[in-house]
Specification:
heterodimer, A: about 120 residues, 11 strands, B: about 110 residues, mainly beta, five-stranded antiparallel beta sheet, globular
Chain lengths: ~120, ~110
C-alpha cells in the first residue's frame, strides 16, 4: 500500500548512543518532514526537506541530523541520544506543500516511532 | 501565546451528540489541515481547507480566512470517533513549516 513507512516502531537507547530512524515514502512526494510529539505539546518540526539534496532546520533541530539523497528516503539520525529526546517521532510527506488542486488530502504521516532514552 | 489555539482541550460527549472543535490561528495561511490521532495510533489527515467548507461522511470542516478560524463538526457522534483532533496550519511565509495546535481530546461514551 502506498504511504509512509517508519522504522523502528519502538526503540530504547542508552544516553550517548546513536541511532537512525528510517522514513520512506512511495508516493513521489517532494516534501518530507520529521516531527516529535511530547505530552501537552503540539507536534514540533525537527527537520524538513523540499526535495532530494535539500534539507532545512525546523523548530527543534539540535541533536538531530538528516539527509535526503533520494526522493523516497528521509532518515533522521540521533547523534548522541539524551533523555530529553525521549518522544514519539513522526515522519510526514506531502506533495506541493500539502496543497492539492483536487482537494485531496496529500499530507501523509508514518505510524510513529516511540523512542526512550535511558 | 501559541500561534494555533484549539478549544476545548478535552471533550466528553454522549453517543449521538453533535460535536464542535474550534481552531484559531494568528498567522496568514495557505492551508489548514484537521488531523485525527487515535490512542497509540498514527495521524491521519481528515481535511485540507483553504476556504469554505468540506464534508466527509459525518464530518464537516469549515474555515473563515478573514476571522482566522476553523471548526470541525462531528454529527451523530460514535465511540469510534474518540481520538485526539489536531489543527495544523501552513503559513504563507513560503517555507514548508506547519504549525500545530496541541489537540482536542474527544471521548464519546456509548
Amino acid at each position: 500500500n502506498a504511504g509512509v513507512t517508519q522504522t523502528p516502531k519502538f526503540q530504547v537507547l542508552k544516553t550517548g548512543q546513536s541511532m537512525t530512524l528510517q522514513c520512506a515514502q512511495d508516493m513521489n512526494h517532494e516534501y518530507m518532514s520529521w516531527y516529535r510529539q511530547d505530552p501537552g505539546m503540539g507536534l514540533r518540526l525537527i527537520h524538513y526537506s523540499v526535495g532530494a539534496g535539500i534539507t532545512d532546520q525546523g523548530e527543534v533541530p539540535n541533536g538531530y541530523n538528516v539527509s535526503r539523497s533520494t526522493t523516497e528516503d528521509f532518515p533522521l539520525r540521533l547523534l548522541s541520544a539524551a533523555p530529553s529526546q525521549t518522544s514519539v517521532y513522526f515522519c510526514a510527506s506531502s506533495d506541493d506543500r500539502g496543497l492539492s488542486l483536487s482537494g485531496a488530502n496529500v499530507l501523509t504521516f508514518g505510524a510513529g516511532s516511540r523512542l526512550t532514552v535511558l | 501565546k501559541n500561534e494555533v489555539e484549539q478549544s476545548p482541550q478535552n471533550l466528553t460527549a454522549q453517543e449521538g451528540e453533535f460535536i464542535t472543535i474550534n481552531c484559531s490561528y494568528s498567522v496568514g495561511i495557505s492551508a489548514l489541515h484537521w488531523l485525527q490521532q487515535h490512542p497509540g495510533g498514527g495521524i491521519v489527515s481528515l481535511f485540507m481547507l483553504s476556504s469554505g467548507k468540506k464534508k466527509h461522511g459525518r464530518l464537516i470542516a469549515t474555515i473563515n480566512i478573514q476571522e482566522k478560524h476553523s471548526s470541525l463538526h462531528i454529527t451523530a457522534s460514535h465511540p469510534r470517533d474518540s481520538a485526539v483532533y489536531i489543527c495544523a496550519v501552513l503559513p504563507t511565509s513560503g517555507t514548508y513549516k506547519y504549525i500545530f495546535g496541541t489537540g482536542t481530546r474527544l471521548k464519546v461514551l456509548a
